[in-house]
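Minutes, methods subgroup
Present: GH (chair), OT, SY

1. OT presented the first of two proteins processed in the latest run. Sequence and structure tokens recorded below as shown on screen.
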Amino acid sequence: MTAPPTDRPTVRPRSGRRPIPPLIFLFVLALAALAVWWNVLSDEQDRQAAQDAACSTAAQAPPSLDPGTVSVRIFNATDQAGLAQQVAAELQARGFVVGEIANDPSDREVTGPGEIRHGPRGNDASAFLGLFVPGVGDYLDTRATAQVDLVLGPEFVFPGSLAAPEQVAAALSTVSSAAAAC
């Protein structure tokens, strides 16, 4: 018996060939997708690193305070008469509250342009005042108030040791832009 005739065409036997062009296309497509994801992940890591750097800068930067909220005592530890008075007048003109002007009452030896003495509550005020008097040292003592002392040292030169208002504004704008990026 023979099989009934059908309308279907006869199936050709497989030749054993693999479809190479479609496989190559899929491989190239997979490589392209991998390259795109690599770029996306790399860009995200770069953005995260930039944000971390900005946050670190903002965390280490001095706060932007109103000078009227910072109480400063100015002490002269040099042989130059009237230096503390001149510096006090300049800082008052910039808005600081000057509490006392005198010679340094401590026996502590001051080197360089001077130092800012403060207690733990005066950390922010000290960092802010440091913008106006760059190069001075920082000395943490045990006082319980937020008041800071600016002690003028032997290398302090008036007015050259005080930062120009433009320099202070530029430092504060850098801090604010870093804080905004954080």
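2. SY then presented the second protein from the same run.
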Amino acid sequence: MREYELVFIVHPDLDDTALNEVVEKVKGWITEAGGAVAKVDFWGRRKMAYPIRKQKEGQYVLVKAQMAPTFGVTLERNLRFLEPVMRFLVTQL
């Protein structure tokens, strides 16, 4: 198991319950693959440097997790198909 940081930007129009559902879905993917989520940090709504999907703001979420290196590709594919997620970045610590 390696430690990773996942930062993703969620659509700004989502309310708190929908945002929590997205975060729980991501946490579920990690735990189902045998990983562990160490920390979830909500950075809140922030202005982006450039518009993404005609949006100038987004809700930022940081997830610190331990997972297998082979699961990173699957996680990125799942995030790509998750509609409310506008951008994401997975980095190894």
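Chair's summary of item 2: The mean pLDDT is 95.
Next meeting: continue with the remaining queue.
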